[in-house]
């Protein structure tokens, strides 16, 4: 407080946490992240899959996807990223003889965007606090809905039933049912995807960010 003039909080969640822990609310400015809207991309879901990307660490909850995949053998899951949990996740997939999970490793920006664009929808099953994940904005910019954990700043971006589905962190049953619901409802995926894209274009674009 003494040496800081302004604290920038990308989420209301972070702003609340700062205030609750003694920071001066008058010094805090809420300024969410932004993304450049995607205008020219090709999307092909003729071979649909559920996509998850990011750091493969415990707090990201990717192990929840492995557990959900056991109950959804007809759904293809593709996981991109690297991290301390990668080895154990691969071992779990082999142990349970899961044929519906593919690990892609770490992708460059171009390949990552392609996998997002060609996915049916994406999943972020975080177990610990998230601030304002850019991975959600990236997903939404391609017109893809998100199944995400109801934790941290995520509910400020993912509106349950509007542009995605929120589930309780660590609840495999809820996660499984949400994935199944979207997989079996292409029309709903399309509607939510349109809302997701419209949201980032109007709320989280560079111009709005700059003005704020």
Strand order of the largest sheet: 5-4-3-6-7-8
Oligomer: single chain
Helical element count? 8
For the terminal residues, how far apart are their CA atoms? 23 Å
Strand content: 5-15%
**SS content category:** alpha/beta
| Low-confidence spans | none
Structure description:
There is one protein chain. The chain is of the alpha/beta class. It contains eight helices and eight strands. A six-stranded parallel β-sheet has the order 5-4-3-6-7-8, with helices on both faces. Strands 1-2 form a two-stranded parallel sheet. Strand 3, helix 2 and strand 4 form a beta-alpha-beta unit.
Secondary structure topology:
Blueprint: E1 7-9, H1 12-20, E2 28-30, E3 50-53, H2 62-71, E4 77-80, H3 86-95, E5 101-105, H4 109-118, E6 121-124, H5 134-141, E7 146-149, E8 164-167, H6 172-183, H7 186-203, H8 206-211
Parallel strand pairs: 1-2, 3-4, 3-6, 4-5, 6-7, 7-8
Helix pairs in contact: 2-6, 5-7
């Amino acid at each position: 407080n003494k040496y800081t003039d302004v604290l920038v909080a990308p989420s209301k969640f972070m702003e609340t946490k700062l205030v609750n822990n003694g920071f001066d609310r008058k010094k805090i400015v809420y300024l969410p992240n932004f993304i450049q809207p995607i205008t020219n991309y090709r999307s092909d879901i003729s071979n649909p899959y559920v996509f998850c990307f990011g750091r493969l660490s415990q707090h990201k909850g990717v192990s929840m996807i492995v557990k959900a995949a056991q109950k959804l053998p007809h759904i293809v899951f593709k996981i991109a990223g690297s991290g301390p949990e990668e080895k154990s996740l691969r071992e779990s997939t082999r142990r349970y003889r899961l044929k519906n999970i593919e690990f892609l490793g770490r992708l460059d920006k171009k390949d990552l965007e392609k996998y997002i664009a060609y996915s049916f929808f994406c999943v972020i099953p975080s177990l610990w606090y998230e601030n304002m994940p850019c991975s959600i904005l990236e997903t939404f910019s391609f017109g893809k809905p998100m199944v995400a954990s109801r934790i941290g700043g995520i509910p400020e971006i993912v509106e349950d039933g509007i542009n995605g589905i929120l589930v309780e962190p660590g609840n495999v049953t809820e996660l499984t049912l949400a994935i199944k619901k979207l997989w079996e409802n292409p029309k709903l995926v399309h509607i939510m995807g349109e809302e997701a894209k419209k949201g980032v274009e109007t709320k989280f674009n560079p111009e709005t960010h700059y003005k704020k």
